[in-house]
Amino acid sequence: MRQRENFADADNEMDTVSAMDKDFKSEMNTEMDHELLIDKLTALEESEMQLFRFLKDRPAGAILTADTDIMLAQLLRNAGLVEFDDETAKALVPASIRDAYRDVWSDELTLRWRKRGWMYKCIEAGKYLYGVMTWDVLQKLFALRYPHAEMDEIRELFEKTPEPLQWFTERNGRLVLNGFERDGYDEYLENEIQKDIPFYIPSKEEVEELYEQGSLISRESHSKLQEFIAEKFDCGTDIAALKIHDLYEMVNNRVRVDDAADAFAAGKEGGNDFSFKSDEIQFRFVELFIEMSRECRIRDNRGHDYYEMVGIMALRNADGGSAGSRGSDDSARSGKAGAQKTIVKPAKIGRNEPCPCGSGKKYKNCCGRN
User: Which of 62, 198, 293, 314 is a plausible cystine mate for 327, CB 3.0–4.6 Å?
Assistant: First the structure.
């Protein structure tokens, strides 16, 4: 999950260099080959590029105050693009890097950088939605923004994704979430859980949201729970959004409702106390969490939520065939104009229906026992 903050300018753009600034030294080599510079610049995430450009336009540098800015400056320092002093929190782009940037940067490189950034976001979405995906699915995700991209370009962008942002490894022609190969879990997920469920292809907005928030907090049930957490635990909407991300991960990892409530109450994000002050608050939290879990797009369902799975199963039963016999990646898509899908929203969960927490058990044998 990624949280963004506004960058902090400092000292009136540092027009006057102080004595401390004059002593500010860098151990990095400021000379850099243009091709290497291009590769480093086009690999930057959006927030890193934003800070780099902010500093590039301030030859005397700037003192950073926000924790996020400081972390990004350290990453840029590690890439050899910025000088940063940990004690003073002053950052600047060396003159040689500024000059080289001016010489090499172009509209073509801007497009290359944006495509690499979109690939990062597609990979992040695949992490939350699928666990195991095909190259064709990655191409469909990428085509949400760049519909004419060829597979060769997509493979190149995937392979050039920096390790900290690369969640997948190619295995036997499939893209497997790192760690899922252990004990053959990737094959178990595909063959025993997902089976022939069609892949859900999200909208561009959903991809962006998964990348930024680590959940789809714009969905009504998610935002309702966020508002409830912010109000009842007096933690603010940003901390509440972090808690929604954690809860979304619990649903994705099949954590039982009561265990999820216990884990939520034990958290101390931002120094806040999330213990339940009354049975009424706990009961309402559980209600909202179950409601949210039904709208969570999870790996077990290849990105579909509970209600969409009800529709898919209804089509399967009507056809007497497979889940994908009348569904495709496109027809299963939600949030897209013209998408066709069958949604059945029962008033309540039947005891013999699949549990909305995603455990794969019947409701009566899982969360319904409580």
Answer: 198
Prediction pTM value: 0.77
Strand-by-strand arrangement of the 62-63 sheet: 62-63, 90-92, 83-85
The pair of structure tokens assigned to 191 is: 């063959």
Question: In whole angstroms, how far apart are CA 344 and each of 194, 255, 314?
Answer: 20, 25, 9
Q: Maximum CA pair distance of the chain? A: 79
What are the φ/ψ torsions at residue 91 (nearest 5 degrees)? Answer: -130, 145
Region for residue 344 given its phi and psi (left: phi exceeds 0; alpha: psi -120 to 50; beta: otherwise): beta
How high is the pLDDT of residue 358? 55
User: Burial, 284: exposed, middle or buried (Cβ in 10 Å; 0-12, 13-18, 19+)?
Assistant: middle
Pairing state of beta strands 174-177 and 168-171?
A: antiparallel
Band of pLDDT at residue 9, cut at 50, 70 and 90: very low
DSSP string of 96-138? HHHHHHHHH--HHHHHHHHHHHHHHHHHHHHHHHTSEEEHHHH
- The one-letter amino acid at 102: R
Alpha helices in the chain (DSSP H): 11-14, 19-22, 34-42, 46-56, 67-78, 95-104, 107-129, 135-143, 151-159, 185-188, 204-213, 220-232, 236-252, 257-266, 279-294, 306-319
User: Which residues, 6+ apart, have CB-to-CB distance to 107 below 8 Å?
Assistant: none
Count of all residues that appear for the chain in the document: 370
